[in-house]
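for the writeup, i need someone to sanity check this before i put it in the appendix. the sequnce is what the collaborator sent (i think, or maybe the updated version? ugh). structure was predicted straight from it, no edits. if anything looks off just tell me and ill rerun, i have time this weekend
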Amino acid sequence: MTWIRTVPLPEADQKLTQAIEAEKALYPKEYAVPVHSAPGGGASEIVASHSLIPDALYHAFATFGVLLSPELPLQRRQHEMIATMVSLTNRCFY
């Protein structure tokens, strides 16, 4: 597996911290507790992999947060079903 340098949350500057908090704010409340968090309770590994470019982190994960909006027609169970099938098709474990 490829190793990607990341910025641990305790070492994050204000721009990175703001990007993480802003994208998290777009997710429905049931997504508040991550299923897969980094050791020590930091950002998940997929979020941390974007930590060197805070703007990219925000835009990548804000997009997904907006797509999960409760104002859209899909329900959480449908989001999970789609995510499961995409992960299965791509042979991902998450």
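The chain has one domain: 9-89. DSSP finds four helices and no strands in the chain.
thx in advance!!
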